[in-house]
Amino acid sequence: MIDYLRGQLAHLETEYIVLDVQGIGYRVFCPNPYVFAGKSEETITVYIHHHVREDAILLYGFSSREEQKLFRKLIDVSGIGPRVALGILSGGNPDTVVAAIHQENITFLTKLPGIGKKTAQRMILDLKDKLEGLGGTASLFDPVPAGASALQDSVPGWPEAREGLRALGYTDAELDQVWKNLKDQVGVDEPVDSVMKKALKLLYAG
To answer: What class does CATH assign to 65-127?
Structure first.
């Protein structure tokens, strides 16, 4: 089974990247492909979950071991497949997802793509005692970042997407700027992962 791939970014789409490893292009589905944007000249390491089913062999890739480990924990939960687990990680970074499970924060979990109340409860029941070493120190009850409160009323997915982008290293100033272009591209019911991917695309474009 493939555990990681090291190569150069050959292509990037909204759901996956193509990683060139010694002349072979691997399509790798990622929570947020744009975290690899701008690295086409570098050799990058992508941590892999190699998923085999009857009709397909799929590669899911992550920028960190923590994401990879959390993904594997998530797909062990009944009702959560690889696509839903990928959506969870695109809607929240590992620290916030783990914190939500530890704090039994069903409100936060049900805002993640593909997660209803019963699945959120199952996540808490199955994973609360199995996430040691996967972070979760972040508080989900911190004040909303400056500039975000007014946006929450218009597009509920933006504050959560914003938190995920801040965890990737983007500043509040950069996120305030990207919102000016993003707000006309998203709907009021748009999922968090979709909002985040659109924001990353704008951030990459500069």
So the answer is: mainly alpha
The type of residue at 205 is A
Cα–Cα distance for residue pair 156/59, rounded to 1 Å: 31
Query: What token pair was written down for 127?
Result: 């994973």
Whether the full predicted model's pTM is greater than 0.85, yes or no, is no
DSSP per-residue codes, 64-133:
SHHHHHHHHHHTTSTT--HHHHHHHHHHS-HHHHHHHHHTT-HHHHTTSTT--HHHHHHHHHHHTTS-TT
Looking at residue 138, what DSSP letter applies? S
Query: Rounded mean pLDDT of 159-166?
Result: 76
Does CATH place domain 4-62 in 3.40.50.300? Answer: no
Per-residue pLDDT tens over the stretch 16-52 = 999 999 999 999 999 988 888 878 778 999 999 999 9
